[in-house]
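Let us practice reading a record.
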Amino acid sequence: MIGGDETMSEPSATRAPVFYGWWIVLACLLVALVSNALGLFGAGVYLHALSAARGWPIGLVSGAITLFYLVSGASMIHVGGAIARFGPRSIIALGAALLSGGVIGIGHADRLWQAYLAFLVTGLGWACLSTTAMATTLAPWFDRHQGRAIAVASLGASGGGMIGVPLLLWGIRSLGLAATTTLAGLIACGVLMPLAGFVLRRRPEDMGLHPDGRTPPPLPTRTDTPRWTQTTALRTAALRTVAVGFGIGMMAQIGFLTHQVSLIAPSLGIEAAGATVSATAAAALIGRLALARFADRIDGRTIATAVLLLAALALGLLAVVPARVAVLGASLLFGLTVGNVTTLAPIIVRREFGAASFGAVFGVAACAIQLAMAFGPAFYGSLHDMFGSYRPPLLAAAGLDVLAAAIVASGRRPA
């Protein structure tokens, strides 16, 4: 009987617990879902809603969104280092409070300067909840599976577009802009604050664990020496090509996503436009799932080059083929690239510069990328107002993506 009991209990005794790092990944996924629903994808909804409700020109409102990206970009250079030094809890909690307050302010702005102030606060919050924050939070927890961890966490960004845009559009139509943004801000705080307080942790060693859930003592692996500083990393072509190449690519991408509702609503209608944005986010989810499956086996720069060229093709099709079916197809094609352009930059930097230096090194790259992104909405908006059509900015953005692909491909791993 004793032997039988031991045999029956053996499976439960040998079953390995889930490595806590994957709970960190899940928390980061939820943070990305909320922050991108109200930040990245929500910006396009606010652009359309404020322009329609207040009668403000698209170009002027685009300037407020540009400020949003400028402020978040300038803040990101400090976010990665702060999380690496102090841990993610306080930074994520601060971001939740600022994002929620900014979104509520956007809905209640009845003067242009109030909208600009609200977007400024939202930008500060989004910086604390951005891909930089998520990748820095995850960096100590994974080594072999760092690509997969970042890619899985980034799935939340696609979920934010799929869920957030239709809900925001429905809420504005049914409840009004002010009520919808107030409710959205309260929900964001209700989701993000508990994650910051009860789930997120700084590093596995604080819990007696090792990266990837290895059993102690860990086997010798490659070290992260030399320990890169922002200054030494910026001297390498590897970091400069990531910052410049992805900055240009993200400028083209964010500009399109911000204007997507306004771009396709005249031909498809506002409801179909919302559905198309959700379909674009769904395509981004598919692209991210594929990246999560193969992230630790592929060369990041090669894939990034291909993704940027695919984005250029999609933007070119949107510019020259105005048919409804073509608009939907090109939006889906572009969607396949959205998540991967965002996710590949931290994967490349983490792989080429190591975990110990990631927070500081990617912080400066993310700052440059975000500052370039900031001009995307105004780039599209000013060209639209100048020519009275979205065709010129779409063609220009396609050319920028080709340039970005060439720059990323020219980079190399630092010595």
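A brief commentary: Confidence is low (pLDDT under 50) at residues 1-13, 221-225.
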